[in-house]
């Protein structure tokens, strides 16, 4: 058998850049996927995603595979912007805690000895960066259909997506909040929800909330009998991910102009739901025809 030199594998039509914010501070790592063809006359639909290091590969592959068979999938091509951090791993726990946590936030003990305290409450600043700096930068590199913008977040990212909806509801047309941490900090999110409802904005938006089967009161089979079984059961009584997400969908659906839904994904836990909901975000962001189209 002949030997050949291995070469790195790259994501098709995807670039990566460390983006320095205008006000200074640490950069974000921006993954940008733009289809390698002329944009439609109206521009590309676009999907923004938090936790970019963890989701970009799945998102690009899901979009490319389904767009290759549009008639059978209802998924067209589009631009994907995944916002991550200049780290080797899937997450930067310290920075994402700040970026994705709604204000006013709190301070917590370090994740590891000898590292900084964990702070939350920077979601307003992060959202301003997306709106004021990142979106114009993306628009300078690809023609965008501003009427077809979507935002996806998982866990803390799902919490951020809801905060963004409540505070800047015109920023996106489609909002996907997967396993959102609605319980966080005694449901501080509710204050923003109430202000959103009272403002009664003129909207036409889709909101998709979701949870996994094992984010309910049920344990995953591999967790039953494990040393931390009781601890997990007690934590479920606090997070109540499926219950809170389902109730949030029902409440949002009552807001004029909001079409909200809840999805429970069989066989999934808090982390395994990630690729499932990334795919759902692709399907929602790049849908050719809405499900209620006639």
Automatic annotation (TrEMBL):
Keywords carried by this UniProt record: Hydrolase
Alphabetized Pfam families for the sequence: Esterase
InterPro entries: AB_hydrolase_fold, Esterase-like, Siderophore_Hydrolase_D
One of the record's GO molecular function terms: hydrolase activity, acting on ester bonds
Similarity comment: Belongs to the esterase D family.
Name of the molecule in the record: Esterase
Organism: Mesorhizobium kowhaii
Lineage, opening ranks: Bacteria, Pseudomonadati, Pseudomonadota, Alphaproteobacteria, Hyphomicrobiales
């Amino acid at each position: 058998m002949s030997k050949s030199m291995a070469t790195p594998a790259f994501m098709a039509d995807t670039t990566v850049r460390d983006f320095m914010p205008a006000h200074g501070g640490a950069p974000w790592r921006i993954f940008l996927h733009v289809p390698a063809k002329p944009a439609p006359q109206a521009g590309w639909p676009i999907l923004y995603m938090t936790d970019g290091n963890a989701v970009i590969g799945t998102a690009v592959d899901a979009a490319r595979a389904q767009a290759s068979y549009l008639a059978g999938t209802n998924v067209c091509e589009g631009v994907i912007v995944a916002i991550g951090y200049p780290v080797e791993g899937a997450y930067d726990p310290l920075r994402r805690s700040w970026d994705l946590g709604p204000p006013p936030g709190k301070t917590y003990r370090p994740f590891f000895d000898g590292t900084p305290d964990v702070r939350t409450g920077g979601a307003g600043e992060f959202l301003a960066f997306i709106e004021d700096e990142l979106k114009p930068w993306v628009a300078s590199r690809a023609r965008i259909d501003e009427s077809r913008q979507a935002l996806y977040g998982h866990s803390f990212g799902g919490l951020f997506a809801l905060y963004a909806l409540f505070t800047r509801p015109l920023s996106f047309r489609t909002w996907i909040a997967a396993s959102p941490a609605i319980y966080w900090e005694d449901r501080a999110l509710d204050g923003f929800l109430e202000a959103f409802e009272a403002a009664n904005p003129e909207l036409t938006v889709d909101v998709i909330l979701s949870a996994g089967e094992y984010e309910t009161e049920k344990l995953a089979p591999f967790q039953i009998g494990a040393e931390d079984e009781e601890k997990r059961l007690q934590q479920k009584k606090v997070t109540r991910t499926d219950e809170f997400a389902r109730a949030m969908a029902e409440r949002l659906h009552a807001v004029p102009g909001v079409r909200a839904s809840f999805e429970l994904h069989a066989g999934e836990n808090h982390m395994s739901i990630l690729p499932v909901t990334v795919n759902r975000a692709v399907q929602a962001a790049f849908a050719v025809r809405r499900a209620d189209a006639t």
